[in-house]
Design brief:
The chain is α+β, with helices and mostly antiparallel strands. The chain has helices at 12-22, 65-77, 88-95, 100-103, 138-149, 153-164, 182-209, 232-240, 265-268, 273-283, 295-393, 413-422, 443-455; strands at residues 2-8, 36-46, 55-64, 108-113, 118-124, 127-134, 172-175, 178-181, 219-223, 243-246, 398-409, 430-440, 459-469, 481-489.
């Protein structure tokens, strides 16, 4: 149930205090008690003239707790939690926003004919003014047909659907091989519709008597699964003298829906009015909107939601730990396998390395021996050739007293090897620095010997250190000069 009323334009907290104690007093008789959830929504405000306070139009909504719990339990069975419980009247208004009667500001009633009840919403000047629920629906129609024609529930339901598709000129319909007179069906259904009309008139009279109503209801919009019940629209229009039409909630959408060929969306659109209104409100929730979810249910669902969030966090946490543990275990296996492989390769290569080391050491020893032999043999050859070459150059009047040497390698052994590898064909020779001492009859004899040495291709860097007279004394003292010459001998 819902009803519109006017209260002083105050802050929401002040309105809460006013309605917390007096809200049920504004609703129709029989609505109240501890088993009802009540909420309100400010649907409009009127500014007062002068210094007076304005007036706020407030929609009070009440719903039975048992009905709310049925919906909440149904959602829980599907694994869902209710975030908000909206009022049917506001969702139906949302579904038909933009309808020409509503935009004109007319007092229009929206009838949502369901399976076991009919929701009635009175809308005027774009806001819900009153709503109620009547005990009329498709189940009552099915029961009336079953009683009239002695049918089971399935047969009566099939007859109801078949006659709802019958045209105005149809005389009879056939179901399961049995023919039914359309006139008799109309008479049976109209007797049922009379009860609905009586309830509507009482509700509209209540609305018209309230001080908040601006005018009486003059139009009806049919919605819900029973909106196209046989003869309902023309019967309501004729008996209540109102404009009546079957509403199409999809008409307010900025695009046209299309579906499979088996579904006629234009024909089935009235039954989706409430669902479409809820969806549209959920897409753009408004601050201060009605929420009939009881506080106890909200707290319970908050705990459930927190528990689910905690479980998800725990699952993620332990999942990450399991992943890290798996990666560490895999890493240990990998590195252990690599270490085993390295040990195997080391065991295979160790004998080869030891053998290579032994061969290298043996090679060094052999090279040292070869160098020693070459040095010994080369030294003898150098001295023999040096004595021969120098001796052949000594002129008459000159004799030698001493020849000494200072041998050095022009290129060291390692440098020689590198030079030989870098410059193939290069020969590495050695120089022998000789010091030649002797005596001569005269300085001219020494000069001839010096020139002979300088012209020899085997002698280079010939240098006379000194030439001087012999200073021997005694009876057998020699006469002449003594000299010392340095030169480089190339074998």
């Amino acid at each position: 149930m819902s009803r519109s009323l006017s209260v002083p334009s105050l802050a929401r907290g002040a309105i809460d205090q006013i309605l917390s104690t007096d809200a049920l007093a504004y609703l129709p008789p029989g609505v109240g008690g501890k088993d009802v959830v009540v909420d309100y929504q400010v649907i409009g405000e009127t500014q007062a003239r002068g210094k007076g306070k304005g007036v706020a139009q407030v929609l009070i909504v009440a719903a039975r707790k048992d009905a709310i719990h049925e919906h909440v339990d149904l959602l829980r069975q599907a694994g869902l939690l209710a975030r908000r419980i909206d009022a049917n009247c506001l969702s139906l208004l949302e579904a038909f926003q933009g309808h020409r009667w509503l935009t004109e500001g007319r007092a229009t009633a929206i009838l949502d004919v369901g399976a076991s009840s009919t929701k009635v919403v009175v809308v005027e000047r774009g806001a819900v003014r009153l709503s109620s629920e009547l005990t009329f629906g498709g189940v009552q129609v099915t029961q009336a047909l079953a009683s009239r024609y002695d049918l089971d529930e399935e047969g009566a339901e099939a007859l109801k659907l078949e006659v709802s598709r019958a045209g105005e000129e149809t005389e009879s319909v056939e179901v399961d091989g049995r023919a039914y007179s359309v006139a008799e069906l109309r008479e049976t259904l109209e007797s049922l519709y009379e009860a609905l009309i009586g309830s509507l008139r009482r509700l509209f009279d209540f609305y018209q008597r309230t001080e908040f109503a601006g005018s009486s209801v003059d139009s009806l919009i049919l919605a819900g699964g029973g909106a196209r019940a046989f003869g309902l629209q023309p019967f309501l229009a004729a008996k209540m003298l109102l404009d009546v039409e079957v509403g199409n909630p999809f008409g307010r959408l900025p695009f046209r829906l299309s579906g499979p060929a088996l579904v006629d969306l234009d024909e089935a659109s009235p039954r989706y009015a409430l669902a479409l209104g809820l969806a549209l409100k959920g897409m753009a929730p408004r601050e201060g909107a009605v929420d009939l979810l009881p506080l106890s249910v909200r707290d319970d669902q908050t705990r459930v939601r927190q528990g689910r969030r905690a479980r998800r966090v725990a699952l993620v946490y332990f999942g990450v730990l399991a992943l890290v543990a798996a990666l560490l275990a895999e890493g240990r296996h990998y590195f252990r396998a690599q270490a085993d492989y390295a040990r195997e390769q080391t065991a295979v290569l160790r004998p080869l390395v030891e053998e290579a080391t032994r061969l290298e050491e043996e090679n060094v020893r052999l090279r040292d021996k070869l160098a020693l032999l070459e040095g010994l043999g080369g030294g003898r050859l150098i001295w023999a050739k040096a004595l021969h070459d120098i001796g052949s150059l000594v002129p008459d009047g000159v004799w030698l007293t001493d020849i000494s040497s200072e041998e050095r390698l022009r290129v060291r052994r390692r440098e020689a090897e590198e030079a030989s590898s870098a410059e193939p064909g290069r020969t590495v020779t050695s120089l022998t620095m000789l010091t030649v001492e002797g005596r001569g009859s005269s300085e001219s004899d020494v000069s001839r010997f010096l020139r002979a040495l300088e012209t020899s291709p085997a002698m280079t860097n010939v240098r006379l250190d000194y030439v001087r007279e012999i200073e021997d004394e005694g009876r057998y003292a020699a006469q002449g000069v003594e000299f010392q010459i340095r030169l480089a001998f190339t074998p």
